[in-house]
Amino acid sequence: MASSGAEVVTIDVQAAKDLINSGYGYLDVRTVQEYNKGHVEAAKIFNIPYLFNTPEGRVKNPEFLTEVLSACGKEDNLVVGCQSGVRSLSATADLQNAGFKHVSNMGGGYLAWVESGFPIEKPKEEL
After folding, report:
1. For the segment 32-61, what is each residue's pLDDT rounded down to a tens digit?
2. Are strands 102-106 and 10-11 parallel, antiparallel or unpaired?
3. Domains of the chain by range and CATH?
4. Does pTM top 0.90 for this prediction?
């Protein structure tokens, strides 16, 4: 087996929650707009979009790895999540290929997290 194409580890939201509670960082790769509507509750959380929505459709964030590297180290324990688990799978693969050793993809994404009734943070409603 080639070491460069390491298999992405996908975990379910319960396993992700346990890892986050044990001190793993949570990397939310959704857009800032999605993130601001509500996100996973985590002590260490980073929002670095993997794709941008443009008039031409979704475009990969060319600075994704640079931005992650400025926020996290390659030895950091990270759970990567998005809305449904598709973007985070690609993002996790990219991070592994870039030398990140402890990254897991959260299968089902934020939707599965919410469905499981796990804690989320939402913007405070204006009174």
Report:
1. 999 999 999 999 999 999 999 999 999 999
2. parallel
3. 10-118 (3.40.250.10)
4. yes
